[in-house]
Amino acid sequence: MIRNLVAAAALAALTSMNMAFAGPTPAPKDAHAYIGYPNDGQVVPANKPFRVWFGLRYMGVAPKGVKYANTGHHHLLIDTELPPMDQEIPSDRQHLHFGAGETETTVTLPPGKHTLQLLMGDENHIPHNPPVYSKKITVIAK
């Protein structure tokens, strides 16, 4: 009896923790985002625009404000960590929003080592459940 209560409490805690770390919009479990260009470790021009294109598998792209199953829009994270997964993705110089459904952009970076990562957001800029994001890549601006 006590063992069952402990197991039920542990399951409830894990379930509530999972809910707190993801947004309300479901995503396909196999969906993933990726940066198609530039490649990890690539040298890019410093202080000049270079192209970044976004990839997405097993999910579609829709503009902000459009609620359609298994869709979202890209956010490019520059030199930062992933934000909280249960809150709206910030909009600033390190969290670029592509709410019109864009799948590429140009970025200008100062000289040095930089990181790029994609994170999908739902119609309200909140990450999906489970979150859909790319691996973080490093580029060197010279």
From TrEMBL:
User: What are the top taxonomic ranks of the organism?
Assistant: Bacteria, Pseudomonadati, Pseudomonadota, Betaproteobacteria, Burkholderiales
Signal peptide as annotated in the record: 1-22
Superkingdom per UniProt: Bacteria
Every copy of the DUF4399 domain together lies at 52-139
Alphabetically list the UniProt keywords.
Signal
Classification via Pfam families: DUF4399 (PF14347)
Indicate what this protein is called per its UniProt record.
Answer: DUF4399 domain-containing protein
Species for this entry: Paraburkholderia phymatum (strain DSM 17167 / CIP 108236 / LMG 21445 / STM815) (Burkholderia phymatum)
Name the InterPro entries on file.
DUF4399
